[in-house]
Design goal:
By secondary structure, this protein is α+β, with helices and mostly antiparallel strands. It folds into two domains: 6-68, Arc Repressor Mutant, subunit A, CATH 1.10.10; 80-237, 3-Layer(aba) Sandwich (Chorismate lyase), CATH 3.40.1410. The chain has eight helices and ten strands. It has helices at residues 6-19, 31-38, 42-54, 84-92, 108-114, 154-159, 165-173, 193-197, and strands spanning 58-61, 65-68, 80-81, 95-106, 120-130, 140-146, 179-188, 205-214, 220-229, 236-237. The protein has a six-stranded antiparallel beta sheet. A two-stranded antiparallel sheet has the order 1-2. Strands 3-10 form a two-stranded parallel ribbon. A hairpin with a 3-residue loop joins strand 1 (58-61) and strand 2. Helix 1 (6-19) packs across helix 3 (42-54) and helix 2 (31-38) packs across helix 3. The longest helix is centred in the first third of the chain and has 14 residues, at 6-19. It is globular, with a radius of gyration of 19 Å. The two termini are 26 Å apart.
Length: 244
């Protein structure tokens, strides 16, 4: 069985905190106990605990341990992404509230942003993303563009907010993610439906993340465009030196 990465350990511990298995005020198991429980390395456990601390879920003190401080993140969301699997799990961990499903034809700047020819038709699924609580402030707005031949999955996505769109495409059509290319840029929002849904005033700062999902043949089968308010989201990436 492959060893878990730190993101998987952090997600499992977070779920334990949210469910009350580790109540506020209690201590988490020690690092060595977590190493044994997850069958992983100590540095992996330390990275997972650091992630929980960054989110405000726990505090750590020498000779005391790791204490649970909150049952939900108290700081702006900051995912740590190091692989396709991390990114897919990040998408699965957040509540999707579908706002609209419609066929659109893109052109001009929008087509350039998506990396497709002007006049390309897509099925667009627009959603607010929330960090596990339907009443929490949204952490982002995502427009997912898929081939209109997959239109039948629209209602599945609407009815099942915990299922990833890419996972439904994989299950029904056998197209799997082989690579994700991601572009991130900062910008100032205008007066749009998206900015109003996110509670942003015109001119406020935001991040736009465009992700293109490629199958094993190198073809794009999904594109997502997400807008995150600057004060509710930051992106952490771990880079490691290659060996040899």
């Amino acid at each position: 069985m492959p060893k878990l990465n730190f993101s998987a350990v952090a997600r499992d511990l977070t779920q334990g905190i949210r469910s009350g298995h580790f109540p506020v005020g209690s201590l988490l198991p020690t690092e060595l106990e977590l190493v044994d429980h997850y069958g992983t390395r100590r540095h992996t456990v330390r990275a997972a605990l650091a992630e929980l601390q960054e989110l405000g879920l726990v505090s750590r003190r020498k000779n005391v341990g790791t204490r649970v401080e909150a049952c939900a993140p108290t700081k702006g969301f900051r995912p740590a992404l190091a692989s396709v699997e991390d990114l897919v799990q990040f998408g699965a961990a957040h509540l999707r509230v579908v706002q609209a499903i419609e066929e659109v034809t893109v052109s001009g700047a929008q087509a350039k942003e998506l990396g497709c020819a002007s006049g390309t038709r897509w099925l667009r699924i627009s959603s607010l993303r929330r960090d596990g609580d339907a009443n929490a402030s949204p952490i982002g707005w995502t427009d997912v563009y898929i081939d209109p031949i997959y239109a039948e999955i629209g209602e599945i996505i609407r009815a099942s907010p915990g299922i990833l769109i890419s996972a439904v495409i994989e299950a029904r059509y056998g197209r799997c993610i082989a690579e994700i290319r991601q572009d991130v840029r900062a910008f100032n929002v205008g007066d749009t439906d998206i900015s109003r849904a996110l509670g942003l005033r015109p001119g406020e700062a935001a991040l736009k993340i465009v992700r293109r999902y490629f199958d094993a043949s190198g073809n794009v089968f999904e594109v997502s465009v997400t807008v995150h308010p600057a004060d509710r989201f930051s992106l952490s990436m771990r880079l490691q030196c290659s060996t040899g």
